What we know:
The protein is α/β, with parallel strands linked by helices. It is 48% helix and 12% strand. The protein has 19 helices and 13 strands. Strands 9-10-8-7-11-12-13 form a seven-stranded parallel sheet. A six-stranded parallel sheet has the order 3-2-1-4-5-6, with helices on both faces. Strand 7 (296-302), helix 12 and strand 8 form a beta-alpha-beta unit. Helix 4 crosses helix 5.
Amino acid sequence: xxxxxRFTYTCGGASGEGICAIHLIKCCIEKRKLSHSTCYNRExxxxxxxxxxxxGELIYKIYRALxxxxxxxxxxxxxxxxxxxxxxxxRWRERLGVPSLSRPPGPLFWFHAVSLGExxxxxxxIKCCIExxxxxxxxxxxxxxxxxxxxxxQLPNNVLYQFSPVDTPGAIDAFLCYWKPSAIMLMESELWxxxxxxxxxxxxxxxxxxxxxxxxxxDSWSQPFVNSLTSLMLSKFLLILPxxxxxxxxxxxxxxxxxxxxxxxxxxxxxxxIDTNEGDQRALEELQVQLMNRKVWMASxxxxxxxxxxxxxxxxxxxxxxxxxxxxxxxHPQHGKQIALELEKDGVRVALRSRHDKLMPGTNIYVVxxxxxxxxFYRLTPIAVIGGSFLPGSAGxxxxxxxxxxxxxxxxxxxxxxxxxxxxxxRLNPLSILQVSGYILVEALSNLLSDAKxxxxxxxxxxxxxxxxxxxxxxxxxxxxxFHVFRVALAxxxxxx
Length: 497
């Protein structure tokens, strides 16, 4: 007898999300061959659910055995990464679950993010949790050294910071045994079987914040051999907060229990301004003086290959505005050094951020090859072109930071999972974001640089859309965590909330 697979669909209001949702629902119906004429059998559903869980447990045992066997090779790989400068030279053993700090007594909440963008989204929630629960210790982990170098200066002083353990049985078990977290908050798409199953076995409450699964990852997690493990992992969570309706449907199609899914908005809107020390602030003020009375625009988070597009745009704009300043902020600092070197070989004068170069007369290009300063530079420019979006296969970057700074925002056509953010902002105000192809970028920038009124309208539209979408997100997330996760987590440890 056939049975019904049930899921809940809550529309966020954006037509783009609704269309995506319809396609996903159709995909589900076609894939599972559901029929409205079939009847629903609770006993059969329970039996099938039990079989799926048993199959998931079996697949997890295979995964655990494989990762246990590969542990020596993974450790060698980490040593190789340390040699190449990709792991912290002194603290790389933290990736194997070896702590470098003492654990304070009392309950501990662990927040984990893979890299800088996800980590910055966690910071407002961490600060809110500390205000609500000052008696709880907060541990923050990230994977990349780039995130470590920036985030360590942004966290409150009483937050512990470690590198995250790799997903091997030894590293995860050692980490959980030492830190004994009461609750774990994972950011975005950090679904690791040893971590999630290990936490559940230790009665550690789990939450997935700003949850997302890319189309490619969804295809992988829904494969016949893997989907039972996916369902098993998702069943261990007490709370999942997806960043869009489309993401929520993907999780439910992967057999995530619908009652644990709630909505509060995209945490990328909640990222506040990065704190600036006195020395950096003074340097930025000096740069602001150098930019006065000159036309300025910025290409941010650009990837390899996109610098050719941006430099071509710069050359075209310079024909009309000879004194124009183009600020280029590559996604990776080393890429910025390469751009500056190639331009200087061609006789182009370039100011490089890491050398503390000044914008002298005749210098029209400023390359930012440092980490964690993007938000600061958004405050210095009236126009931001968001990179990672102009070449096929790109997935875009966070738009909200530029909107928060009041920039007129342009982006390319390939923005991946950030399309929901663009749709939301454009729905609130069509002038908030302009999405263009590379060959139209010159015309769009020329219009903004030549028309002060149009520039001001787009700046104000972006700022208004950002404030409308960011209102109350952090507070809502903390309320969901309090009710669904922290209350249960502390009760499991015999503590009162």
